[in-house]
Amino acid sequence: MRWLLIALVVVASAACTTPPSGPEQPRKGVEVLGTIPHDTSAFTQGLELVDGVLYEGTGLEGQSELRRLDPTTGEVKQQVELPSPLFGEGVTVVGAHIWQITWRDGIAIRRDRETLAEVKRVTYDGEGWGLCRDGGRLVMSDGTEELRFRDPETFDETGRVTVKRNGIPLVRINELECVGGRVWANLWQSDEVVQIDPNSGDVLATVDLSPLRPADVPKSDVLNGIAAVPGTDEFLVTGKNWPTIFRVRFRTG
């Protein structure tokens, strides 16, 4: 009887520790609608299209920049450098300004949207990866399974949510795009983009963008950079040092 009770306890314990799978989330493919040339020296960390201007943040120490691009030609119209040793990451527009975060430096830079000149700096704890604006709040990723919410004026943290896919925490959340009350996110070292409900943290869909990867681009130059095209269901996507920005639509099946 003692061995039977022990066996029952072990089985019950295993059942309790098994992570919930939940319903399988839909997977989407990609339809390419057009292409734009992309500077292969750009180690893309952030991408956002606002009022006909494509803003791109790039990374690497000593090479990080914020750029204004022509979204139809990919031409760099304006650029400013981040002083070394800052390593640039995600960017997002807030009114007349742009926030640009850094990787392990713990510094967020607020810039004038027209001149790209630095207005002020603030500090934060942890790493900075992706950034986007969701209504009256900013959403920031740090490479973990968490999204942090921040005040768009002060950059103070106001909350967090854990991202889960099929009930399992999802890590390596990278570049972000907020649109329609949802967050689209690149996953580092993956050819996937996921759609996240920022209130619950649940992944609502996964998109396979592997068909876009250029054959001659090393695996270390990962997919990164997603910008919604306002007024449409389309996106601009690219990767670190990729020669092309793709205009795409995500589709089921």
TrEMBL record:
It comes from the Bacteria. Keywords: Transferase. One of its GO terms (molecular function) is glutaminyl-peptide cyclotransferase activity. Signal peptide: none annotated. Pfam families: Glu_cyclase_2. PANTHER family: GLUTAMINYL-PEPTIDE CYCLOTRANSFERASE. This is Glutamine cyclotransferase.
